[in-house]
Design brief:
The protein contains seven helices and nine strands. With 204 residues, the chain is an alpha/beta fold. The protein has one domain: Vaccinia Virus protein VP39 (Rossmann fold), CATH 3.40.50.150. The longest helix is centred in the middle third of the chain and has 13 residues.
Length: 204
């Protein structure tokens, strides 16, 4: 991962803010298996528990963030070894500010592959991320074109990416989009920003 060093040091102290919309998942069976992919310090675990879910797995590539998760937000099975999820299938997969932190096309395709390996017969995919059209104040930064891509920029020692409209529809062509919305949130540095959320479903 291009930002692995960032999440070992500076990133492990950050506060994540993307809200989870309860009404999007209210109708799911509370016995559903939930995967928080790129869970960070597990901040969504108590939110999911309050919504009635108890079968929660948090995966993140950063051991430092997972150490924080186990201390601050217990109640989920946390792992940084994706093979530990082999043979499991999930009914709901959350990707909150995950793709922005995995900016290259190669990383994103790898994430898609991982997601599709752990799909159940009917799986919901809930993405919370950024679109370039929602944040015109970032236009100058988008022109940095890190990794030779518009919308890709440096922040400290990390590289992040905001995506063109329709990016996730292209990234997940086998999934059907059910819902989308824009919301106010804050960046890792506490600045106001607009986020974009999507709910997809895939039936096998």
């Amino acid at each position: 991962m291009k930002n692995s060093e960032y999440w070992k040091k500076e990133g492990v102290q950050k506060v994540f803010t993307h809200p989870l919309c309860d009404d999007w998942i209210a109708s799911l069976d509370k016995n559903a298996c939930v995967l928080d992919l790129g869970c960070g310090y597990g901040r969504l675990t108590p939110v999911l528990q309050q919504a009635g879910f108890s079968n929660i797995v948090g995966y993140d590539s950063s051991p430092a963030l997972l150490d924080r998760a186990r201390k601050e937000n217990p109640g989920a099975f946390y792992s940084n070894v994706f093979h530990s999820l082999s043979g499991r299938s999930f009914n709901l997969i959350l990707c909150f500010a995950l793709f922005t932190s995995a900016p290259s096309l190669e990383e994103q395709k790898e994430l898609v592959s991982l997601i599709e390996k752990v799909c159940g017969n009917k799986t919901y995919l809930y993405i919370s991320d950024y679109e370039t059209c929602d944040n015109p104040a970032y236009q100058t930064r988008y022109q940095e074109r890190r990794l030779n891509m518009y919308g890709c920029f440096a922040s400290g020692n990390a590289i992040f990416r905001h995506h063109k409209p329709g990016h996730f529809d292209t990234l997940f062509p086998e999934w059907r989009k059910l819902k989308e919305k824009t919301l106010k949130s804050r960046t890792l540095n506490g600045n106001e920003i607009i986020i974009h959320q999507y709910l997809y479903i895939r039936s096998q």
